[in-house]
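Fill in residues.
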Protein backbone atom coordinates (compact mmCIF):
# COMPACT_ATOMS: atom_id res chain seq x y z
CA UNK A 1 0.00 0.00 0.00
CA UNK A 2 1.41 3.41 -0.99
CA UNK A 3 1.35 6.67 0.96
CA UNK A 4 -1.88 7.84 -0.68
CA UNK A 5 -3.64 4.63 0.29
CA UNK A 6 -2.29 4.90 3.83
CA UNK A 7 -3.54 8.47 4.15
CA UNK A 8 -6.89 7.38 2.77
CA UNK A 9 -7.21 4.84 5.61
CA UNK A 10 -6.94 7.42 8.33
CA UNK A 11 -8.98 10.11 6.57
CA UNK A 12 -11.81 7.61 6.07
CA UNK A 13 -11.61 6.66 9.72
CA UNK A 14 -11.67 10.29 10.89
CA UNK A 15 -14.45 11.39 8.55
CA UNK A 16 -16.67 8.48 9.42
CA UNK A 17 -16.25 8.40 13.18
CA UNK A 18 -15.32 11.71 14.78
CA UNK A 19 -15.29 15.47 14.21
CA UNK A 20 -11.87 17.06 14.62
CA UNK A 21 -10.26 20.42 14.12
CA UNK A 22 -7.96 20.93 11.14
CA UNK A 23 -4.91 21.06 13.40
CA UNK A 24 -5.81 17.78 15.13
CA UNK A 25 -6.44 16.13 11.78
CA UNK A 26 -3.02 17.21 10.52
CA UNK A 27 -1.37 15.72 13.61
CA UNK A 28 -3.15 12.39 13.14
CA UNK A 29 -2.34 12.18 9.44
CA UNK A 30 1.31 13.00 10.19
CA UNK A 31 1.44 9.95 12.45
CA UNK A 32 1.13 7.81 9.36
CA UNK A 33 3.80 9.60 7.37
CA UNK A 34 6.45 10.25 10.03
CA UNK A 35 9.16 7.80 11.04
CA UNK A 36 8.79 6.56 14.61
CA UNK A 37 12.55 6.36 15.16
CA UNK A 38 15.27 8.96 14.84
CA UNK A 39 18.24 6.57 14.88
CA UNK A 40 19.72 3.79 12.82
CA UNK A 41 19.12 0.30 14.26
CA UNK A 42 22.25 -1.44 15.54
CA UNK A 43 23.42 -4.67 13.95
CA UNK A 44 22.41 -7.95 15.57
CA UNK A 45 24.69 -10.96 15.39
CA UNK A 46 22.09 -13.34 14.00
CA UNK A 47 20.07 -10.85 11.96
CA UNK A 48 21.04 -12.63 8.72
CA UNK A 49 19.75 -16.02 9.89
CA UNK A 50 16.66 -15.99 7.69
CA UNK A 51 16.63 -19.77 7.16
CA UNK A 52 15.05 -21.72 4.32
CA UNK A 53 11.66 -20.01 4.59
CA UNK A 54 11.44 -16.67 2.82
CA UNK A 55 8.80 -14.11 3.66
CA UNK A 56 7.55 -11.30 1.45
CA UNK A 57 6.16 -8.26 3.25
CA UNK A 58 2.85 -6.73 2.21
CA UNK A 59 1.84 -3.39 3.71
CA UNK A 60 -1.90 -3.55 4.39
CA UNK A 61 -2.40 -0.38 6.45
CA UNK A 62 -0.75 2.25 8.63
CA UNK A 63 -3.04 2.57 11.63
CA UNK A 64 -1.43 2.67 15.07
CA UNK A 65 -3.42 0.00 16.91
CA UNK A 66 -2.47 -2.79 19.32
CA UNK A 67 -4.26 -5.94 18.11
CA UNK A 68 -5.45 -7.65 14.94
CA UNK A 69 -7.51 -10.62 13.80
CA UNK A 70 -7.91 -12.70 10.66
CA UNK A 71 -11.08 -14.29 9.28
CA UNK A 72 -13.53 -14.32 6.40
CA UNK A 73 -15.73 -11.48 7.56
CA UNK A 74 -17.81 -11.12 4.36
CA UNK A 75 -18.07 -14.85 3.52
CA UNK A 76 -16.43 -14.57 0.10
CA UNK A 77 -13.94 -17.36 0.78
CA UNK A 78 -10.99 -15.01 1.32
CA UNK A 79 -9.33 -14.12 4.61
CA UNK A 80 -9.68 -10.52 5.74
CA UNK A 81 -7.85 -8.58 8.47
CA UNK A 82 -9.39 -6.57 11.28
CA UNK A 83 -7.11 -4.16 13.13
CA UNK A 84 -8.32 -1.44 15.44
CA UNK A 85 -11.23 0.53 13.92
CA UNK A 86 -10.80 -0.84 10.40
CA UNK A 87 -11.65 -3.99 8.46
CA UNK A 88 -9.43 -4.73 5.45
CA UNK A 89 -11.24 -6.87 2.88
CA UNK A 90 -9.18 -9.25 0.74
CA UNK A 91 -7.86 -9.48 -1.87
CA UNK A 92 -7.41 -5.71 -2.46
CA UNK A 93 -7.54 -4.71 1.22
CA UNK A 94 -10.53 -2.45 0.71
CA UNK A 95 -10.91 -0.40 3.88
CA UNK A 96 -14.14 -0.45 5.85
CA UNK A 97 -14.64 1.54 9.06
CA UNK A 98 -16.48 -0.73 11.48
CA UNK A 99 -16.19 0.94 14.88
CA UNK A 100 -15.00 3.85 16.96
CA UNK A 101 -12.20 3.52 19.50
CA UNK A 102 -11.49 5.57 22.58
CA UNK A 103 -8.03 6.91 23.34
CA UNK A 104 -5.39 8.27 21.00
CA UNK A 105 -1.83 7.64 19.81
CA UNK A 106 0.43 10.52 18.75
CA UNK A 107 2.85 10.73 15.84
CA UNK A 108 5.64 9.22 17.98
CA UNK A 109 3.56 6.18 18.87
CA UNK A 110 2.87 7.32 22.42
CA UNK A 111 -0.57 6.76 23.90
CA UNK A 112 -3.13 4.02 23.46
CA UNK A 113 -6.27 3.17 21.58
CA UNK A 114 -8.64 1.35 23.90
CA UNK A 115 -8.55 -1.95 22.05
CA UNK A 116 -6.25 -4.81 23.16
CA UNK A 117 -7.96 -7.79 21.49
CA UNK A 118 -9.46 -8.36 18.02
CA UNK A 119 -10.70 -11.96 18.23
CA UNK A 120 -12.94 -13.13 15.35
CA UNK A 121 -15.92 -15.23 16.48
CA UNK A 122 -19.55 -15.56 15.39
CA UNK A 123 -21.07 -14.65 18.73
CA UNK A 124 -24.73 -14.40 17.72
CA UNK A 125 -24.81 -17.38 15.34
CA UNK A 126 -25.91 -15.44 12.25
CA UNK A 127 -23.12 -16.84 10.06
CA UNK A 128 -20.97 -13.71 10.18
CA UNK A 129 -17.77 -13.31 12.19
CA UNK A 130 -17.99 -10.66 14.88
CA UNK A 131 -15.07 -9.04 16.75
CA UNK A 132 -14.35 -9.47 20.46
CA UNK A 133 -12.32 -6.77 22.17
CA UNK A 134 -11.12 -5.71 25.60
CA UNK A 135 -9.37 -2.68 26.99
CA UNK A 136 -7.05 -1.74 29.80
CA UNK A 137 -8.28 1.82 29.91
CA UNK A 138 -12.04 1.33 29.68
CA UNK A 139 -11.75 -1.69 32.04
CA UNK A 140 -14.21 -3.81 30.10
CA UNK A 141 -14.65 -6.44 27.41
CA UNK A 142 -16.94 -6.01 24.41
CA UNK A 143 -18.10 -7.62 21.20
CA UNK A 144 -18.97 -5.86 17.96
CA UNK A 145 -21.73 -7.35 15.80
CA UNK A 146 -20.90 -7.81 12.11
CA UNK A 147 -23.47 -5.87 10.06
CA UNK A 148 -22.59 -7.55 6.78
CA UNK A 149 -22.83 -5.38 3.69
CA UNK A 150 -24.52 -2.51 5.55
CA UNK A 151 -22.38 0.61 5.51
CA UNK A 152 -22.77 1.32 9.23
CA UNK A 153 -20.72 1.03 12.39
CA UNK A 154 -21.00 -2.33 14.12
CA UNK A 155 -23.11 -2.26 17.31
CA UNK A 156 -21.15 -2.78 20.53
CA UNK A 157 -22.25 -5.01 23.40
CA UNK A 158 -20.44 -4.91 26.73
CA UNK A 159 -19.60 -8.37 28.04
CA UNK A 160 -18.51 -7.22 31.50
CA UNK A 161 -16.75 -4.56 33.53
CA UNK A 162 -13.91 -6.31 35.36
CA UNK A 163 -11.05 -3.89 35.98
CA UNK A 164 -8.01 -3.72 33.70
CA UNK A 165 -7.85 -6.09 30.71
CA UNK A 166 -4.33 -6.75 29.39
CA UNK A 167 -5.27 -8.90 26.38
CA UNK A 168 -7.25 -12.00 25.45
CA UNK A 169 -7.20 -14.93 23.04
CA UNK A 170 -9.27 -17.73 21.58
CA UNK A 171 -8.57 -21.17 23.10
CA UNK A 172 -10.28 -24.57 23.12
CA UNK A 173 -11.39 -24.80 26.75
CA UNK A 174 -14.19 -27.37 26.45
CA UNK A 175 -12.13 -29.86 24.42
CA UNK A 176 -14.32 -29.94 21.31
CA UNK A 177 -11.38 -29.29 18.99
CA UNK A 178 -12.45 -25.72 18.23
CA UNK A 179 -10.80 -22.57 19.53
CA UNK A 180 -14.02 -20.71 20.24
CA UNK A 181 -13.69 -19.84 23.91
CA UNK A 182 -12.03 -16.66 25.17
CA UNK A 183 -9.54 -16.41 28.03
CA UNK A 184 -8.98 -12.74 28.85
CA UNK A 185 -6.05 -11.56 30.94
CA UNK A 186 -7.51 -9.90 34.05
CA UNK A 187 -6.44 -10.02 37.68
CA UNK A 188 -8.69 -13.02 38.36
CA UNK A 189 -8.93 -16.10 36.15
CA UNK A 190 -12.02 -16.39 33.93
CA UNK A 191 -13.16 -17.58 30.52
CA UNK A 192 -16.03 -16.76 28.16
CA UNK A 193 -18.15 -18.86 25.84
CA UNK A 194 -21.10 -18.21 23.58
CA UNK A 195 -24.47 -18.50 25.28
CA UNK A 196 -27.59 -16.71 26.41
CA UNK A 197 -27.57 -13.86 28.89
CA UNK A 198 -30.16 -13.55 31.67
CA UNK A 199 -32.46 -11.62 29.33
CA UNK A 200 -32.28 -14.35 26.69
CA UNK A 201 -29.96 -12.55 24.26
CA UNK A 202 -27.07 -14.27 22.49
CA UNK A 203 -23.75 -13.03 23.79
CA UNK A 204 -20.67 -14.20 25.66
CA UNK A 205 -21.15 -15.56 29.16
CA UNK A 206 -18.54 -15.66 31.88
CA UNK A 207 -17.16 -18.58 33.89
CA UNK A 208 -15.07 -17.73 36.96
CA UNK A 209 -12.24 -20.08 37.92
CA UNK A 210 -10.63 -17.98 40.66
CA UNK A 211 -10.80 -14.46 42.09
CA UNK A 212 -7.14 -14.59 43.17
CA UNK A 213 -5.23 -11.62 41.74
CA UNK A 214 -2.25 -12.64 39.62
CA UNK A 215 0.19 -11.05 37.19
CA UNK A 216 -1.08 -10.36 33.67
CA UNK A 217 -0.78 -13.19 31.18
CA UNK A 218 -2.78 -16.32 30.39
CA UNK A 219 -2.79 -19.44 28.28
CA UNK A 220 -4.27 -22.90 27.95
CA UNK A 221 -3.23 -26.49 27.30
CA UNK A 222 -3.13 -29.99 28.77
CA UNK A 223 -0.44 -29.84 31.47
CA UNK A 224 -0.99 -33.21 33.16
CA UNK A 225 -1.90 -35.34 30.15
CA UNK A 226 -5.47 -36.14 31.18
CA UNK A 227 -6.92 -34.89 27.89
CA UNK A 228 -8.47 -31.77 29.41
CA UNK A 229 -7.54 -28.15 28.75
CA UNK A 230 -5.96 -26.51 31.78
CA UNK A 231 -5.62 -22.75 32.16
CA UNK A 232 -2.31 -21.08 33.00
CA UNK A 233 -1.30 -17.82 34.64
CA UNK A 234 2.23 -16.59 35.43
CA UNK A 235 1.68 -17.50 39.09
CA UNK A 236 -0.38 -20.70 38.86
CA UNK A 237 -1.98 -23.29 36.61
CA UNK A 238 -5.52 -24.52 37.08
CA UNK A 239 -6.21 -28.20 36.50
CA UNK A 240 -9.42 -28.59 34.54
CA UNK A 241 -12.25 -30.65 36.04
CA UNK A 242 -14.23 -33.15 33.99
CA UNK A 243 -16.84 -30.48 33.38
CA UNK A 244 -15.08 -27.12 32.89
CA UNK A 245 -18.34 -25.22 33.34
CA UNK A 246 -19.53 -26.63 36.66
CA UNK A 247 -16.56 -28.46 38.17
CA UNK A 248 -13.93 -27.22 40.60
CA UNK A 249 -10.61 -26.16 39.08
CA UNK A 250 -7.57 -27.23 41.14
CA UNK A 251 -4.80 -24.66 41.57
CA UNK A 252 -1.11 -25.59 41.24
CA UNK A 253 1.86 -23.21 41.79
CA UNK A 254 3.91 -21.72 38.93
CA UNK A 255 6.51 -18.99 38.53
CA UNK A 256 6.77 -17.82 34.92
CA UNK A 257 7.92 -14.81 32.95
CA UNK A 258 11.09 -13.46 34.57
CA UNK A 259 14.73 -13.90 33.61
CA UNK A 260 15.39 -14.85 37.23
CA UNK A 261 14.19 -18.43 37.62
CA UNK A 262 11.55 -18.88 40.29
CA UNK A 263 10.16 -15.36 39.86
CA UNK A 264 6.81 -14.57 38.28
CA UNK A 265 6.24 -11.57 36.04
CA UNK A 266 3.83 -10.35 33.41
CA UNK A 267 3.65 -12.58 30.32
CA UNK A 268 1.82 -12.60 26.99
CA UNK A 269 0.28 -15.86 25.77
CA UNK A 270 1.37 -19.00 27.67
CA UNK A 271 1.66 -22.09 25.46
CA UNK A 272 1.75 -25.77 26.41
CA UNK A 273 3.88 -28.11 24.28
CA UNK A 274 6.24 -31.07 24.72
CA UNK A 275 9.50 -29.30 23.84
CA UNK A 276 11.93 -32.11 24.72
CA UNK A 277 9.74 -34.97 23.43
CA UNK A 278 9.71 -36.85 26.74
CA UNK A 279 5.93 -37.30 26.87
CA UNK A 280 5.35 -34.56 29.44
CA UNK A 281 4.08 -31.22 28.22
CA UNK A 282 6.24 -28.18 28.89
CA UNK A 283 5.46 -24.44 28.93
CA UNK A 284 6.58 -21.67 26.54
CA UNK A 285 6.19 -17.98 27.34
CA UNK A 286 8.16 -14.75 27.71
CA UNK A 287 8.54 -11.56 29.68
CA UNK A 288 5.96 -9.17 28.26
CA UNK A 289 7.86 -6.01 29.16
CA UNK A 290 11.44 -7.04 29.90
CA UNK A 291 14.04 -9.35 28.37
CA UNK A 292 13.60 -13.07 27.94
CA UNK A 293 11.77 -15.80 26.03
CA UNK A 294 11.63 -19.07 27.96
CA UNK A 295 10.56 -22.68 27.99
CA UNK A 296 9.88 -24.46 31.26
CA UNK A 297 10.67 -28.15 31.42
CA UNK A 298 8.16 -30.29 33.28
CA UNK A 299 9.98 -32.73 35.58
CA UNK A 300 7.94 -35.50 37.16
CA UNK A 301 9.08 -37.58 40.13
CA UNK A 302 6.17 -39.71 41.19
CA UNK A 303 3.33 -37.35 41.99
CA UNK A 304 5.68 -34.40 42.37
CA UNK A 305 6.02 -31.95 39.47
CA UNK A 306 8.71 -29.27 39.25
CA UNK A 307 9.64 -26.82 36.50
CA UNK A 308 13.11 -26.00 35.17
CA UNK A 309 13.50 -22.75 33.24
CA UNK A 310 15.45 -22.62 29.97
CA UNK A 311 16.16 -19.34 28.17
CA UNK A 312 15.40 -19.41 24.44
CA UNK A 313 16.55 -15.82 23.81
CA UNK A 314 17.26 -12.82 26.03
CA UNK A 315 18.79 -10.47 23.43
CA UNK A 316 15.72 -8.27 22.92
CA UNK A 317 12.81 -7.07 25.05
CA UNK A 318 9.02 -6.77 25.03
CA UNK A 319 8.08 -10.05 23.35
CA UNK A 320 4.45 -9.25 24.13
CA UNK A 321 2.88 -11.76 21.73
CA UNK A 322 3.70 -15.42 21.09
CA UNK A 323 2.22 -17.82 18.54
CA UNK A 324 2.98 -21.51 18.01
CA UNK A 325 2.67 -23.10 14.56
CA UNK A 326 4.44 -25.58 12.27
CA UNK A 327 6.01 -23.03 9.94
CA UNK A 328 8.53 -25.35 8.31
CA UNK A 329 6.17 -28.33 7.89
CA UNK A 330 8.35 -30.79 9.80
CA UNK A 331 5.59 -31.95 12.13
CA UNK A 332 6.49 -30.00 15.26
CA UNK A 333 5.51 -26.53 16.40
CA UNK A 334 7.75 -23.48 16.02
CA UNK A 335 7.55 -20.15 17.84
CA UNK A 336 6.61 -16.83 16.23
CA UNK A 337 7.04 -13.56 18.11
CA UNK A 338 7.97 -9.91 17.76
CA UNK A 339 8.87 -6.80 19.72
CA UNK A 340 5.99 -4.65 20.89
CA UNK A 341 6.40 -0.95 20.19
CA UNK A 342 6.10 1.39 23.16
CA UNK A 343 4.15 -0.89 25.50
CA UNK A 344 4.73 1.78 28.14
CA UNK A 345 5.61 4.65 25.80
CA UNK A 346 9.28 3.69 25.58
CA UNK A 347 9.86 3.38 29.32
CA UNK A 348 10.30 -0.40 29.42
CA UNK A 349 13.80 -1.95 29.34
CA UNK A 350 14.96 -1.84 25.71
CA UNK A 351 11.93 0.22 24.76
CA UNK A 352 13.92 2.32 22.26
CA UNK A 353 15.73 -0.59 20.64
CA UNK A 354 14.87 -1.61 17.05
CA UNK A 355 11.70 -3.50 16.26
CA UNK A 356 11.76 -7.00 14.86
CA UNK A 357 9.63 -10.03 14.01
CA UNK A 358 11.17 -13.50 14.40
CA UNK A 359 10.45 -17.19 14.26
CA UNK A 360 12.31 -19.76 16.33
CA UNK A 361 12.65 -23.15 14.65
CA UNK A 362 12.30 -25.98 17.17
CA UNK A 363 14.11 -29.29 16.92
CA UNK A 364 12.60 -31.29 19.80
CA UNK A 365 14.61 -33.91 21.66
CA UNK A 366 16.52 -34.63 24.83
CA UNK A 367 18.48 -31.45 24.16
CA UNK A 368 16.01 -29.34 22.14
CA UNK A 369 17.42 -26.69 19.81
CA UNK A 370 15.76 -23.35 19.05
CA UNK A 371 17.13 -21.57 15.97
CA UNK A 372 16.27 -17.91 15.58
CA UNK A 373 15.24 -16.69 12.11
CA UNK A 374 14.64 -13.04 11.31
CA UNK A 375 11.48 -12.16 9.42
CA UNK A 376 11.95 -8.41 9.78
CA UNK A 377 14.51 -6.33 11.69
CA UNK A 378 15.21 -2.60 11.85
CA UNK A 379 12.34 -1.84 9.46
CA UNK A 380 10.07 -0.30 12.10
CA UNK A 381 7.80 -3.36 12.13
CA UNK A 382 7.14 -5.38 15.26
CA UNK A 383 4.18 -7.14 16.85
CA UNK A 384 1.47 -5.95 19.19
CA UNK A 385 -0.79 -7.98 21.46
CA UNK A 386 -1.19 -11.05 19.20
CA UNK A 387 0.12 -12.67 16.00
CA UNK A 388 -2.27 -14.55 13.69
CA UNK A 389 -0.43 -17.36 11.87
CA UNK A 390 -2.70 -18.57 9.07
CA UNK A 391 -2.66 -19.49 5.38
CA UNK A 392 -3.72 -16.07 4.11
CA UNK A 393 -3.50 -16.86 0.40
CA UNK A 394 -4.64 -20.51 0.50
CA UNK A 395 -1.40 -21.80 -1.03
CA UNK A 396 -0.73 -24.51 1.55
CA UNK A 397 1.78 -22.77 3.83
CA UNK A 398 1.42 -20.54 6.88
CA UNK A 399 1.71 -16.77 6.70
CA UNK A 400 2.07 -14.22 9.51
CA UNK A 401 0.07 -11.07 10.27
CA UNK A 402 1.25 -8.40 12.72
CA UNK A 403 0.24 -4.95 13.82
CA UNK A 404 1.16 -2.47 16.54
CA UNK A 405 1.50 1.19 17.40
CA UNK A 406 4.25 1.45 14.79
CA UNK A 407 1.40 1.41 12.24
CA UNK A 408 0.00 -1.69 10.56
CA UNK A 409 -1.21 -4.24 9.76
CA UNK A 410 1.48 -6.03 7.77
CA UNK A 411 1.15 -9.44 6.15
CA UNK A 412 4.28 -11.56 5.77
CA UNK A 413 3.65 -13.98 2.91
CA UNK A 414 5.37 -17.35 3.26
CA UNK A 415 7.06 -18.01 -0.10
CA UNK A 416 7.93 -21.66 0.57
CA UNK A 417 5.36 -22.94 -1.94
Amino acid sequence: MNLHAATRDIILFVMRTVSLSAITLMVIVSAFTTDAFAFEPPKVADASATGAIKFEMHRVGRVRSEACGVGDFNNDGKLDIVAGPLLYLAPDWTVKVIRELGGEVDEQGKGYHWDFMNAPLDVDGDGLLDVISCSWHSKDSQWFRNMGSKDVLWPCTTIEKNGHFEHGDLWDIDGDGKRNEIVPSVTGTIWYERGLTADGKKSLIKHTISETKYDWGCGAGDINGDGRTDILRPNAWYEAPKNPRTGQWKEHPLKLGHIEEGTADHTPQIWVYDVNADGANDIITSSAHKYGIFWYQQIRKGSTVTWKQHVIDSSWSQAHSLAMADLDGDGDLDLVTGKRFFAHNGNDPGGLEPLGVYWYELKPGVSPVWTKHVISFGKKIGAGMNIPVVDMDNDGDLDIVVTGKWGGPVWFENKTK
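The longest helix spans residues 3-17.
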